[in-house]
Amino acid sequence: MKPLTIVLAESGIELVPRSIQSHSSVISSARKRNKNPSQILLDISLHYRAMKKLNEWYKRGRPDIVHISLLNAFSSPLNIAKLLRVYIHTYDNRIIHIDPSTRIPRNYNRFVGLMEQLLLVGKVPPESANPLIFIEKKPLSVFISEKSFDRVLIMHEKGDLIPPSSLGISIVKDMKNDRNVCIIIGAFQHGDFRKEFLTISREHVSIFPKPLDSWIVVSRVIEGIENTLNIYASKSLNMDINI
């Protein structure tokens, strides 16, 4: 059975842009951590006043969205059963690859430190020839094309309304037929996908008639697939990963 791929798109994970590194709010937060302003993550809760100068500031500086979404995904029975792959696409068109066995830090500050190291060095652990996490500069459309997915769905509030249970049935059917399925989920707080992203696939899906937080969409989509697979009671799946 092919694993499901989830891409967290336009994620608000980036180092503080050079244009606002001299702002007092950035300098203050960097000083508290004994770091250079160029070495810290952009965070709207800390850098709101500085960020108002940035293009599409309302979509950026939200690493917490990614953190919660990753915790939901990587702790799921679907991932434990080795049937899930998760990638992060960042606002500035980078792709973060994460080994499914990676233990995502539960503590938010540790997660921030991990992402800062990744953006500065390019991989985690820094000295590893086979890193658990690495990053590359690549547009989302190119990444999707290179992976040659058989089916790509975009979770969008204006998409066709499909309950998670029905969506799970549809996706599991493809997975069992060895078809590579990719689900793109926006990981930003406000606004919409860039127009070019919406053209990546014509299959736009919504699981609720109103906007939902990214991590809720992640958890409900995964749960729909798990329920279809009856993964909670199955003894046939490879469950050899320690929780």
From TrEMBL:
Keywords: Methyltransferase, Ribosome biogenesis, RNA-binding, rRNA processing, rRNA-binding, S-adenosyl-L-methionine, Transferase. GO terms for biological process: rRNA base methylation. The record marks D64 as: Stabilizes Arg-xx. It is an enzyme of class 2 (transferase). It catalyses: a pseudouridine in rRNA + S-adenosyl-L-methionine = an N(1)-methylpseudouridine in rRNA + S-adenosyl-L-homocysteine + H(+). One of its GO terms (molecular function) is rRNA (pseudouridine) methyltransferase activity. The record marks R62, R103, R106, R110 as: Interaction with substrate rRNA. HAMAP family: NEP1. This is Ribosomal RNA small subunit methyltransferase Nep1. It comes from Ignisphaera aggregans. The gene is nep1.
